[in-house]
Amino acid sequence: MSTYQVEPDELRTTASDLRSAAKDARDADARDAVDELAGALPGSSTASVMPELATAWDEGITAWASSVGDFADGLDAAAADAEAADARAQAFQEWLRTFLGGGS
Amino acid sequence: MSITFGRLRSWRSAGVKAASDELRVDVLALEKARDVVESDAVPDGWTGLGRWAASARQAALVAQMTRHIEGLADFERQVYAQIGPVTAIEQAVQDILTDAAAQQLEVDASGTVSDVAPRPTFDNRFEAQEHQASRQHAVDALATRVGDVLDDAYAVDSALIAARPHGSFSDDGPDYVVDPEVERDWASMSDGERRRVLEHIAEQQARDAGVDDFEVRVEDLEDADGDGKDDDPTTDSRGSWSEGDRVLRIDEGNLSDPTILGTVAHEVRHAQQHKEVDDLPWWWWEDYDGPPGVSEAEVEEWRDNFDDYQTTKDDGYDAYRDQPVEKDARETGGAYLDDLDGDDLDRIREEAR
Questions:
Q1: Is the complex ipTM more than 0.90?
Q2: CA-to-CA distance for B209 and B333, rounded, in angstroms?
Q3: Is B122 helix (H, G, I), strand (E, B) or coil?
Q4: Which residue of B37, B62, B93, B179 to mutate against A (max A Cβ within 10 Å)?
Q5: CA distance A64 to chain B (A)
Q6: pLDDT of residue B173
Q7: Distance from CA of B261 to the nearest CA of A (A)
Q8: Where do the DSSP E strands lie in B45-189?
Q9: Domains in chain A, start-ordered, CATH in brackets?
Q10: Which helix (H) or strand (E) holds B30?
C-alpha cells in the first residue's frame, strides 16, 4: 500500500520539474559538439566513429527523458488519485454528517 | 577514410575547442537534469510500497545518467587536451607548406614531396651532382616533417578514439572500433602478413581461453559453394567457428579491413563458449569452474542458445544478432579491438614473423 502525505499540488509541481529536466536532457544532445569535432578533424577515425556514437547517445537520452516523463505522469496520476480519495472522503463525511444530523 | 596530408590541411583547433566547449555545456545540462531526478523525483512525504518502487526506478535513472555523464566528461577532457596538439599540427602544416614553397618543393595530398624547381644547367658533372644531392636532402627533410606531423595527427586521433565513452547510452554505438594507428599499420601490411598476424592472434587468444586442437583457415566465405557468386548478398560473412571440424574460418575478402582483428577474437570466443558448455558440472558434487566474469547461469544460457541457434537466413538478422552467444562474442571482439593499440600490433607482427 502506498500513502501520500503531500499535497497534490506538490506532486504536480514535482512532475512539472521532472518534465522540465527531461526536456533539458533532450536538448543537451551531443550531436552538435560531435559534428563540430568531426568537421575539425577530417579523415580521422574520430570523424567517422563519433557521429554514430552520438546517435546512440541521443537515442539513449531520449529514452531516459521519456522514462523521466513517465515518472512525472505517475506523480500526476498519484495527485489525481489523492484528490479523488480526498473528495470521496469528504463526500462520505458530508453524508455522515447529514445522516447523523438528521438532515439539518 | 584515413588521415592524409591533404586532409590534415583542413584540421582546425578552433573546431576542437568549440566541440570541447559544447560538450562541457552538454555535461552541465545533463548533470542538472540528473540532479533534479535525484533530489525531487520521490517526495519526502511519500510512504509505503509505492515509494519503494519509485525510489528503485529513480536510482536506476540516476545511475544510468551518471554513467553517461562520467563517460562524456572524460571524453570532453580528452577533447580539451587535444586543442594544443591540433594547434601545433595546424602550425606545422602551414610551416611545411610555406617552406615547401620557399624551396620550390611541392607536397601533394598523399604527403609525397617533389622537387618542382626548374632544372638549372651546370658547367660540370660535379656541380650537377652537388645540386642534385642538396635538392634531395631538402626533399627528404620535408618528407620527414610530413611524416612527423602525420604521426602527431594519428596520436591525437588515437587518444580521442580511446577516450570515447563506453556503456550506458553508448552500448548501441559502433561495435568494432579500431585504433587509428592500428588501422594505419594494417593498411601498410601485405595480405600474407595479415594472415600470419590473424593466425597468431587466434592461437594466442585460444591459448588464453583454454581452447586447443583447432585450425585457422582464410577462405572465401562469401562464396562457400565456389560457384563464383556471393552465396547471400544480404549478409557479410566475416568469420565463423565450426565446432564439428574445429575450424576457425576468416573471410579472405575482408582481410584488408582491420576490424577483422576483432572478428578473430569473436570466433575464438565461440570456441570458448562451446568448451565452457562442455565443461559444465555434470554431477551435483562438481564445482563450476568457468572463465572470470562468466556465471554458471550464463554458460547454461549459451548451452540452451546453441541448442536453438538463430540464423539470419531462417530467423532474421535481429534474432541472430541479439542471441546470447552472439552478443557475448561481439562484446569480446569489441573489447579486444578496444585494447589493441599500435604498439600491441607491432609486437604481434614481430612475434608472427
A1: no
A2: 13
A3: coil
A4: B37
A5: 7
A6: 78
A7: 17
A8: 46-48, 105-107, 113-115
A9: 8-99 (1.10.287)
A10: helix B13-40
